[in-house]
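Dear Dr. L.,

I hope this message finds you well. Following up on our conversation about the binding site, I have prepared a predicted three-dimensional model of the protein together with IPE. For your records, I am including the exact sequence and ligand specification that went into the calculation, followed by the structure tokens. Please feel free to forward this to your student if that is useful.
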Amino acid sequence: MPVIPSFTSSTREIPESGIIPRHIAIIMDGNGRWAKKRFMPRVAGHKRGVETVRTAIKACIERGVEYLTLFAFSSENWRRPTDEVAFLMQLFINMLEQELSKLHENGIRFKVIGDLSKFEPKIVECVRNGEALTADNSRFTLTIAANYGGRWDIMQAVRKMMDQCPQLATCFDEKDLMQHFALNHAPEPDLFIRTGGEKRISNFLLWQLAYTELYFTDTLWPDFDARALDLAIQSYQQRERRFGRTSEQLQPAQSAHGEREAAVKRTA
Ligand code: IPE
Ligand code: IPE
Ligand code: MG
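The resulting structure of the complex is given below.
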């Protein structure tokens, strides 16, 4: 059985947080509107959105982000017109075929979260091969959420836990459940970004966003460039992450942090 790293649960322990978010989770929204504005078919926006994914990965690595989780297809997106769904599936296959070796060369670990049972066997095989190929890369983790839903994730985690440890049925805690979440390979996101102007979670990481800083921008996903990412990170840097405590309680910790920073500067 693989060893599952255990990450802090923000409702049980206070996680460490730095100037740069360690984990960014993004709802990449607005592809259709981007295309519509240009009198192009919606799918042209999805195609363009793939380029933005490349830009975002590069920019995150350059800024020292360690985990990037991208919502590519929700469990509710099957409700879209059949031809749009088919196009998105083909785009996913192309991405798997063309990008995996490049991700590996760049030391990126590739993961997919979501209910893969609804995908063609060819896609599932490509995903599993890609995950196996990149499993030992530790520089950066890219997670694609495909046919993902936060409610599905919680349900499947409960089922897995009950199946593997039936004795927990009457008494289990967050840690017992957390290791069965699809995103158990990453800490909880520090920063959540939704492009495209909507202010909702749309069934993304319902459990993991408990204490994540939320950032909503009107920028449509195909227009979300490195500068737009910097604006999101700047907004994050202005937040006071209290995790339930008062602002006053944070002061000693912050001044200790400030002293450490000053000491680093003095020694530099
Ligand atoms: C997000 O863009 C991509 C997916 C959901 C696959 P949309 O396709 O939702 O774009 P809008 O929201 O219609 O503009
Ligand atoms: C959320 O976007 C899902 C993805 C970006 C993959 P949607 O465009 O599907 O969300 P709603 O329907 O506007 O909430
Ligand atoms: Mg949308």
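In brief: The CA atoms of residues 27 and 194 lie 5 Å apart.

With kind regards,
A. P.
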